[in-house]
Amino acid sequence: MSGLSRLAETRMNLSRSFVLFVLACMLSACGFQLRGVGSLPPELQSIDLQADSLSVSQVNLLNQNLQQAGASLSDDGSADRVRLAVAIKSLPDRNLANSVGANAVVVRVSRELTYSLTSNAGERLVNQKTISRQVDLTLDNNNPIGIEFEKENATASLDRELIYQLILLLEQY
Fold first, then answer.
1. Global pTM?
2. What confidence category does residue 118 fall into, taking pLDDT thresholds of 50, 70 and 90?
3. Which CATH architecture has domain 41-171?
């Protein structure tokens, strides 16, 4: 009897292993990658970043993400560099709902990232494109300091999302 149960247990382990193997193959076949594993194409390995309208924290975040994707950054204007022009702007907040009894309001916070790629010779590699992201926040009107804190956190999160999306689009160039 114990030999029979051992055989059944071995079969169960073998079938589990087979199912895991098939799932792993299917996952990699669909193109799934862990975040941050991709890299930029060779044409974009050397970038001259034009981000005059960005804040210091946005520039640092963009530099960090570009370098993690394999780009070297400088502004020396060498012939093999491409120019990446990036701008992020806030769109006006939009009130979606207002609850008088609960003294709460739902606000949509939106940001746009605009970018273009130009060769050092002035040829447009990627015409100006825009990426938009938004988030809906439920804010307590009784806490004005909390409202500002929530909006700052939301815009920082949107900036991270926009820059991450930009890197993904550049990796597909």
1. 0.73
2. very high
3. 2-Layer Sandwich (3.30)
